[in-house]
Amino acid sequence: MLFNSLQFAAFFLIVYGVYLTLSRRAQNRWLLMASYLFYAAWDWRFLGLIVASTVIDYSVGLALAATDDLSRRKRLVGLSVTANLGMLAAFKYAGFFAAGFTDLLGTVDVVAAPWLLDVGLPVGISFYTFQTMSYAVDIYRGQLKPTRNLADFALFVAFFPQLVAGPIERASRLLPQILSPRTPSWSGFGSGCWLILSGLVKKVVIADNLAHLVDRIYSNPGQATALEVLFATWAFAWQIYCDFSGYSDIARGTSRLMGFELMVNFRLPYLSTSPAEFWRRWHISLSTWLRDYLYIPLGGNRLGALLTYRNLALTMWLGGLWHGAAWTYVVWGAYQGLLLMAHRLSRPALDRLTPRSAFGQGLWFTVRVVCMFQLICLGWMIFRANSLAHLGALLSRLTTGFEWGGALRWWPTLVTLVLPLALYQLLQFTRRDDEVLLRWWGPVRTAVYVILFYAMVLLGEDHGASFIYFQF
User: Fold this and answer.
1) Most buried of 56, 212, 229, 373, CB within 10 angstroms?
2) Are residues 171 and 227 in the same domain?
3) Residue 153 is part of which domain span?
């Protein structure tokens, strides 16, 4: 049930209409039922995984609160981590390792059973397993008290706006909202509708139209010129941003209509001047999760330079592997780790180069943003490639195919779709206001709404293309 479908629109209107008539406790039960129905619309067979993860971590949380014995507490949190990562590994990585095992058997003329490679991926499993696992870890650390109500905890795990692609919420943030009375307001209704509209425009107008450009060039890199590969890579950078942040906007908007406030998952990532800043702005719920539950427990930057670089590399490598069982994700994670290490090494020199004048600082900021965007785009090429061989073909054309060819025909498409959003984001950045449009004069704001609505009608893809991050 895609956010950009009439099916979801009808589903949400029914859920929201009933929700407004109920008391808080009844609202929670209604939302839990709706969330399970929402997930069952994808594949009802995998509902058992969500229920299993919910019951395990709910029970672990209560058991942790009931004992002070350190060894028992370690075993309990180990049970949560093992169970959640075990389910994630079984469904997400079994095919990857089975394929390698099958290839190995093929070298000695042994044919493996087909079912070894036919392991379906439950949608959203990477998101909800991280979310529920962090609940048990936070209780173990003494940062959170467990909830006694299983249904309320189940809603925390399965809350449908952010169930299949995040943000990865922390129990300390979302559970109190579930346990407390919620009073939807007119201001929340207006800003929630704006988030939904902006998310839909990002998805169906920008991302889905850019996808045609990207798919056409990336599907046959041998026939593309260097400029076409470059344009397609820039286009994919904006496609994946608008696709994923568009989902997050819709998730936040629908939640806000019901009185919930989800965390901001993207904050102008392409205005970053360094790899570290990029990861503070991109997929914030995952990057902070990796920081708090992997990088810092490994030692963070407290154990000297060498181990700091090891921790950065390992964290980003595992972050890449989180996206899927493919060598391209492994390489992408390693590339992100190298960027972070290189930035850490060069930061003192970069700081010395910062001009003192306001004009010089503005120019230096622009240069760093442009350079960082190109480094990000190289990473997106790795991420988007279907295989290492495909990546090699793309890099080969990028570095050798210096014909003009038909590259310039893609330029108007890229500019038309991306420039208005880029200019609005510059305004958000300079005003330091994520929702600056809501402060505009009423008639101007209304005109923008009308323009965006017609943009969806005239330019929007109407086939309900899936969101990129649903595959993770």
Assistant:
1) 229
2) no
3) 21-183
Domain assignment present for residue 144? The answer is: yes
For the chain, the C-alpha Rg in angstroms (whole number) is 23
For every one of its 472 residues, what pLDDT tens digit does the chain have, with 9 covering 90 and above?
788 888 899 999 999 999 999 998 899 999 999 999 999 988 888 898 999 999 999 999 999 999 899 999 999 999 999 999 998 888 877 665 555 545 554 555 554 455 444 556 788 888 999 999 999 999 999 999 999 999 999 999 999 999 988 799 999 999 999 999 888 788 889 999 999 999 999 999 999 999 999 999 999 888 888 888 999 999 999 999 999 999 999 999 999 999 999 999 999 999 999 999 999 999 999 999 999 999 999 998 888 889 999 999 999 999 998 888 788 999 999 999 999 999 999 988 888 888 888 888 889 999 999 999 999 999 999 999 999 999 999 999 888 867 765 667 778 888 899 999 999 999 999 999 988 998 998 899 999 999 998 888 888 765 667 777 776 6
Residues 178 and 191 in one domain: no
Both 264 and 174 in one domain: the answer is: no
Tokens 């997400």 found at: 92
Q: Which of 212, 283, 323, 390 is catalytic?
A: 323
**pTM of the full structure:** 0.91
Q: Is 463 one of the catalytic residues?
A: no
Q: How many domains does the chain have?
A: 2
Tokens 């909830």 locate to 147
Question: Quick check: 139 and 124 in contact, CB under 8 A?
Answer: no
Whether residues 319 and 396 share a domain: the answer is yes
CA distances from 263 to 38, 118, 272, 285, 288 (A): 21, 35, 20, 8, 11
